Structures are given as structure tokens and as C-alpha cells.
# Entry
Amino acid sequence: MRADQQYRARNHSARLSTVSSIWYPLRRYITAAITQLAAKMPRMRYPRLPKLDANVLMPSKNRPRSASLSLTKASDSMPPTRVATTRDGFMYPFLTGGVAGDDARAAVLTDVRRSITMKAEEVGGLRASTVHEGRETLATAAAALREVFEAGGTLFAFGNGGSATDAMDAVADFREAPQGWPNRRALDLTEDPAILTALANDIGTEALFSRQIIAFARAGDAVLAFSTSGSSPNVILALAEARRRGLITIALVGYDGGRVLAEQLADYVIVTRSQHVPRIQEAQASAYHILRELVETTTDDNHARA
# Structure
């Protein structure tokens, strides 16, 4: 070993020895001080959790009238803490036995039934109006999209949040439809977290989709954009980039169509006229499933007749 290496080794060992001689006694001192301090602190008392009577779990018609939550005191020196029992109807009154509990349970079921019916009627009407208003746009977009596929082109779908889920579902249906239709070339621009996080970190979220279009798309391809507001910045940038590159642009939007409709940022715009985001997305699901079907069932002849 060279002399300078031997010197560095001895110097390193000496430093370690010095640190050890200081640290270990200091650690013992700190540990002892903390132990003494903890011994002088008053002990904390915590109430025990209430015990649940097994009878409470029985159906109300078989439950004994005395079934309730029982309380065990933490110690004799501590006063009992008042806890709500099932007989109080606290938070969940419909779990209580007897006439009051049955009435509460019936009221809850009535509210749930009314809510489900109302939502079903709302989304049913919204689906019908979306498809009726956009029927001509859906047919022409499907014919254009069919030409893209027959020429070997690719469909790129994208959106944010729940709209990203719709893009994922649409791409899955185009790639391998359960109806047995031909597999179509499609790519979900939200499916790769490495690409998304790199773009968000290095450039910003507004470039999430437009940069991927620059990388993957070519003239003659198509994009399918989802936006409940119709004004999402990254969706708008992606549509603009797609149009500059000669792609066919299809957009499913909500509310009043937002900037996408007002500024005609897409070749084909299907609007779901609602301000309730969950209902918009449910109606858009019907629209893109119809679009998928029309791609396989629409021809130039029957489109001309339509």
C-alpha cells in the first residue's frame, strides 16, 4: 500500500475512534435523561372502547328489546362517558328495532329509491338529447374515422380525470370490441404514467397530450378528445396541435360546449348540454359507444342517404 493511502487509512480510523468516544457516552446520557423525564410525567388515562352486544348484530325482528351498546369505565376514579346506543337512534336510526326503527328504515329505502329513479331519468333524458342533437355529427365522424382506419391510421384518445377513464374505455373498444368487430389501431394518451409524469414535471400539465401527438401522430390519423367543460387547456392545445398536423379531430364536450364549440377547435363536436359532470360523462359514454358501432356499420352509401 502506498504511503499516502496508509496515512489516509490511519487518519480515517482516528476520526472514527474520536467520534465513537464522544457519541456513545452522549447517547447513554440522552437515553437516561429521557427515561427519567418520562417517569416524572403523569400517566395518561384513556377510556376503553364500548363493548358491542352480540344481540345488536341480529335482525331487528329477532333482537331482544334490551340489546344496546354497553359501556365499561376505564377506572373507578373516572366518571362514565355518555355513549350513544342503538336505542338512541344515533346517526343510524334505521338500525334500531321497534316501530321507530322500522319507520326510519322505510324512509331511508324510500329516499334511496327516489334518488336512483331521479338519476336514471336524468341521465336517460340526457343521453337521448345528446345522441339526437349529435346524430348527424356522429354519423359523419364515424365515416371519417372509418376511412382513417382503412388507410392504416391510428386514433388517439385523451381526457382528464373521469374523461381519462372514458378515453381508456373507448380505446379498449376500438382495439378489441366484444361484438367481434375488426380490431382498430388506437392509443390512449393517458395510459403511460412515465410519459405523463415526465411531461408534467419537465414542461407542465398543459403539454400532456400535445407533446404526445407530436411524438406519435402523423397526418391522416385522428384524435378523440373528452372534456366535460369543453375548455380544458391541455385538451385545447392537443386539438390545435392535431389540426396543425393534419389529423381528424373529434371532441365530446359538456356544458355549452365551451371553447371547443365556440371557437370550432374540432372538426366534429358532440355536446352534452348539462352542468352536472357525472351525468355528462355517462351521456358521453353512450355517444362514443354509438360512434364505435357506426364505424363498423356506416358506409359511404348509407351515410349519403342519411
Notes: The two ends are 91 Å apart (CA to CA). Residues 159 and 226 are 5 Å apart (CA to CA). Confidence is low (pLDDT under 50) at residues 66-90.
